[in-house]
Design goal:
It holds the Pfam family DUF5795. The protein contains 1 helix and 7 strands. By secondary structure, it is mainly β. 12% of the residues lie in helices and 47% in strands. Bound molecules: zinc ion.
Length: 75
């Protein structure tokens, strides 16, 4: 199973997806998974990725494949 997915027309890795969600660089990322939810803005497919923005923090982030919507479990 490939860890690369198309997000807003671009092929992204788990790291790139996490950086899009975080709007910053990240240290570690897990594999991309399909979230069991639809985008609240456009109804598109939502991807989930766990990542570490720093050594002391683990964040789960979600990002729509079709629009700018994203969210983290910090919210
Ligand atoms: Zn969307």
């Amino acid at each position: 199973m490939s860890d690369n997915r198309v997000v807003q027309g671009r092929m992204v890795t788990g790291r790139k997806l996490a950086e899009l969600i975080e709007d910053d660089s990240v240290m570690e990322t897990e594999a991309i998974q399909d979230a069991d939810r639809d985008c609240p803005d456009c109804g598109g497919n939502v991807l989930e990725v766990g990542y570490m923005p720093s050594v002391t923090e683990f964040v789960t982030g979600w990002k729509c494949q079709d629009c700018d919507w994203s969210e983290t479990d910090r919210d």
